[in-house]
């Protein structure tokens, strides 16, 4: 069963469409990263799932029950062990929230909006949002004392009925889960490092055993090294707990490494979802290709499954274009390119000339011109022009000394291309 289902969700703020017809589902126990640039609607999507805002269109289902639905939206999920079947306070809250919104709209289905505190959702804000006047222990216990209807596993009710001893056991369990030293439980947030604060924020969200965790760019304020270390610890904790998780981020590397699936969001639209490797290897369009990691885009002409380019004839492994022999664009990833010194290079490699060498820490970026502009025999073909094409190639530092401005070189391409 899906732990989360978002169907046709739209949201307008200040007359601007922030989200438009967003649809996806997330199986129980899996992690999804939604990646997009600033202003793409990432945080708004989380706020709608959490119940901080109401949807303008569509519906959201958590654990089989409809928690958000616009007036007139299909309410079939209400009969699937959802709000009506579950009854209780959550059903009353949802009915009350929808009564006014559904009135006067042609007798369609009423709007539904289950309050945030009754959704069983854990939320980690970008800055952690820890209570500065409470110790770490008190921050972690807050969910146990204040979220009596959160969660679906029964662990929370057990902790409450067991009193202080059970609550303390739960606090220590989640502290250990996020690799937080028990000696830090008595400290205040300002006495912790940034990475420790984020672990506390995650632990607080996990304490009441929610049905789903929402992470709103929780690592963005951390330094690069600490960000990677904290992210790995958080992923390990989430994997161990088995809780369904949605992360939103603008960091492509973070999105690719975080979970079981990834979604690309731009202009309020979810343009592609799937396994990270599949989305990376075959982006839906040229925008997705450039946004999700480094990309080399070449002008080509495709004829019978072969892309003719400044780098020679390249096999097409995915064709996302309109079909037929025509000029189009091909995607290569940097690891498909190997730059070699001209002398003794493979005869099938394309001719090139070095334009610039830039050191980039662990490697060098060598900018070359390949194709007709690189000299005789460069093999620009139908995809190039008289000037050739400029390409950036990553070269190991140990090999970078072979290349300097004006030096002839060769480019070897491995694997096929995606064309658009």
TrEMBL record:
One Pfam family per UniProt = TOBE_2
- The chain positions of domain ABC transporter read 4-292
Can you provide one Gene Ontology molecular function annotated for this UniProt record? Answer: ATP hydrolysis activity
Looking at the keywords, is Secreted present?
Answer: no
Quote the cellular component terms of the Gene Ontology held in the record. Answer: ATP-binding cassette (ABC) transporter complex
Q: Which top-rank group of organisms is this from? A: Bacteria
Query: Does the keyword Nucleotide-binding belong to this entry?
Result: yes
Read off the InterPro entries from this record: AAA+_ATPase, ABC_SmlMolc_Importer, ABC_transporter-like_ATP-bd, ABC_transporter-like_CS, ABC_transpr_FbpC, P-loop_NTPase, Transp-assoc_OB_typ2
Query: Sorted alphabetically, which keywords does the UniProt record give?
Result: ATP-binding, Cell inner membrane, Cell membrane, Ion transport, Iron, Iron transport, Membrane, Nucleotide-binding, Translocase, Transport
Q: Which PANTHER family does the record associate with it?
A: PUTRESCINE TRANSPORT ATP-BINDING PROTEIN POTG, SPERMIDINE/PUTRESCINE IMPORT ATP-BINDING PROTEIN POTA
Protein's name in the database: ABC transporter ATP-binding protein
- Native organism is Subtercola vilae
């Amino acid at each position: 069963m899906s732990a989360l289902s978002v169907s046709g969700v739209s949201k307008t703020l200040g007359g601007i469409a922030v989200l438009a017809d967003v649809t996806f589902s997330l199986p129980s126990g899996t992690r999804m990263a939604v990646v997009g640039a600033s202003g793409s609607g990432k945080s708004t999507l989380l706020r709608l799932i959490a119940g901080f805002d109401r949807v303008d269109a569509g519906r959201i289902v958590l654990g089989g029950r409809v928690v958000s639905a616009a007036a007139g939206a299909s309410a079939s999920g209400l009969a699937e062990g959802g709000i009506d079947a579950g009854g209780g306070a959550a059903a009353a809250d949802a009915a009350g929230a929808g009564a006014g919104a559904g009135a006067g709209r042609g007798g369609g289905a009423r709007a539904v909006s289950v309050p945030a505190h009754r959704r069983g959702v854990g939320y980690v804000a970008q800055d952690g949002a820890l209570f500065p006047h409470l110790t770490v222990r008190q921050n972690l216990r807050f969910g146990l004392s204040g979220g009596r209807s959160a969660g679906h596993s029964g662990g929370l009710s057990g902790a409450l009925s067991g009193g202080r001893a059970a609550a303390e056991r739960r606090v220590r369990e989640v502290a250990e889960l996020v690799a937080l030293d028990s000696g830090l439980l008595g400290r205040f947030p300002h006495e912790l490092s940034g990475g420790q604060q984020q672990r506390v924020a995650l632990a607080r969200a996990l304490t009441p055993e929610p049905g789903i965790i929402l992470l709103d760019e929780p690592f963005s304020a951390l330094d690069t090294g600490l960000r990677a270390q904290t992210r790995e610890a958080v992923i390990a904790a989430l994997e161990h707990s088995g809780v369904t998780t949605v992360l939103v981020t603008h960091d492509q590397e973070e999105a690719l490494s975080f979970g079981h699936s990834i979604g690309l969001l731009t202009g309020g639209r979810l343009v592609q979802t799937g396994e990270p490797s599949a989305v990376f290897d075959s982006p839906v369009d040229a925008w997705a290709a450039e946004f999700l990691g480094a990309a080399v885009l070449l002008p080509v002409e495709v004829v019978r499954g072969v892309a003719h380019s400044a780098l020679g004839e390249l096999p097409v492994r995915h064709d996302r274009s309109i079909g037929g022999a025509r000029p189009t664009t091909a995607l290569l990833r940097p690891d498909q390119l190997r730059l070699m010194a001209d002398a003794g290079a493979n005869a099938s490699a394309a001719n090139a000339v070095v334009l610039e060498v830039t050191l980039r820490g662990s490697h060098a970026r060598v900018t070359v011109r390949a194709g007709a502009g690189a000299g005789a025999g460069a093999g620009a073909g139908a995809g190039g022009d008289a000037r050739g094409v400029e390409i950036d190639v990553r070269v190991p530092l140990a090999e970078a000394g072979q290349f300097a401005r004006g030096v002839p070189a060769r480019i070897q391409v491995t694997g096929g291309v995606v064309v658009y």
